[in-house]
């Protein structure tokens, strides 16, 4: 974006980034996985120090042939590639689901405002309620994926509670997901428009399909959220990494002597860092810096649709035609 241009509201929150004060290569806290991998790095550094000390000062030769290391390196590399690719696939799949859901909410909102049963004040109130409910579904999905159950207090999150149908309590304590419950209000509105003749049968079917696509996208995100990487793979991954890092000092101590200590620390940092990235992004719906910016995406969608809704309420929808 040119420096002279003022950023406008489309994607305002989603695209907003703080200027970087330090190059990414020098960042060790915010957004990194270093805090999660410091323990194994310190352990293998100390272990290598012990191996080198025994080999150099106690005259006990601990060196072993280094021919096994390349073969084990290939196995470790393949495991890490699969681990990270599967994790990023989950991250990218979740982001695509969010995008598809927002697109369907946009389409339904536009169609309701322009083609819905809006002949009377009561009809227009129902249309406003349906559009707000669609936006509320975005907030409900975000909260549900974070296991933030229940409807928040009005003072806690007014931009969410103001969108919900009046008097709605929710039945999450009975095992009903709030996005699914909100979908009933939207489907009821589509049926009303079909009975009134505002939506012909093909149109009503198309609108219901888009509503179903929202629920399908939410279901796919639930699958990502509730399906962890198989524990057998995680166990074997940890064991292979440990075996490699424990064997490495013995294979390089004869050639590198004390230089083996920083070398093992660097290799452990690299391998465990890659594995830590996979763990970080396999559940992309949380609040970490590396997760999908759900709050900002939902906030942008709310701003976009409520602005159009306010114009529509004032009878200015012809400005968009």
What structural class should be given to the helix and strand makeup?
A: mainly alpha
Average pLDDT confidence is 86
Whole-number count of domains: 1
Oligomer: single chain
Uncertain regions spanning at least 5 consecutive residues = 1-6
User: Fraction of residues in helices?
Assistant: 55-70%
How many strands, which pairing sense, and closed or not: the largest β-sheet? none
Q: Report the principal-axis shape.
A: elongated
Span of the ends, CA to CA: 28 Å
- Rg calc: 27 Å
**What's the SSE pattern?**
HHHHHHHHHH
Tell me what you see in this structure:
The protein starts with 11 loop residues before the first helix and ends in an 8-residue tail after the last helix. The chain has one domain. With 321 residues, the protein is mainly alpha-helical. Residues 1-6 have low confidence and may be disordered. Helix content is 68%, strand content 0%. This is Bestrophin/UPF0187. The chain crosses the membrane at residues 33-54, 60-82.
List the helices and strands and how they pair.
Layout: H1 12-15, H2 34-57, H3 68-115, H4 121-145, H5 158-161, H6 178-196, H7 201-226, H8 231-256, H9 260-281, H10 294-313
Helix pairs in contact: 2-8, 2-9, 3-4, 3-7, 3-8, 3-9, 3-10, 4-6, 4-10, 6-7, 8-9
């Amino acid at each position: 974006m040119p420096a002279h241009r003022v950023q406008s509201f489309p994607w305002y929150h989603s695209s907003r980034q703080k200027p970087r004060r330090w190059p990414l290569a020098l960042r060790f806290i915010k957004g990194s996985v270093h805090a999660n991998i410091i323990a194994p790095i310190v352990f293998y550094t100390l272990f290598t120090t012990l191996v080198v000390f025994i080999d150099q000062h106690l005259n006990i030769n601990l060196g072993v042939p280094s021919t096994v290391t390349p073969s084990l390196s290939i196995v470790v590399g393949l495991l890490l590639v699969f681990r990270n690719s599967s994790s990023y696939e989950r991250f990218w799949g979740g982001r695509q689901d969010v995008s598809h859901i927002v697109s369907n909410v946009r389409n339904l909102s536009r169609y309701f405002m322009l083609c819905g049963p809006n002949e009377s004040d009561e009809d227009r109130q129902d249309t406003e309620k349906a559009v707000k409910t669609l936006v509320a579904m975005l907030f409900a999905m975000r909260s549900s994926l974070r296991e933030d159950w229940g409807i928040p207090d009005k003072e806690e999150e007014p931009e969410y509670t103001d969108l919900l149908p009046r008097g709605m309590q929710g039945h999450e304590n009975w095992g009903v997901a709030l996005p699914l419950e909100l979908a009933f209000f939207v489907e009821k509105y589509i049926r009303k428009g079909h009975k009134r003749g505002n939506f012909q049968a093909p149109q009503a079917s198309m609108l219901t399909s888009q509503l179903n696509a929202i629920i399908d996208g939410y279901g796919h995100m639930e699958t990502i959220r509730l399906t962890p990487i198989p524990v057998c793979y995680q166990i074997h991954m940890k064991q292979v990494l440990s075996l490699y890092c424990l064997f490495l000092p013995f294979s390089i101590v004869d050639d590198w002597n004390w230089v083996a200590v920083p070398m093992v620390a660097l290799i452990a940092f690299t391998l465990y860092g890659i594995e830590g990235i996979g763990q970080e992004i396999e559940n992309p719906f949380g609040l970490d810096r590396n997760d999908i910016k759900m709050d900002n995406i939902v906030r942008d969608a709310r701003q976009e649709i409520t602005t159009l809704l306010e114009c529509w309420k004032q009878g200015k929808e012809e400005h968009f035609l």
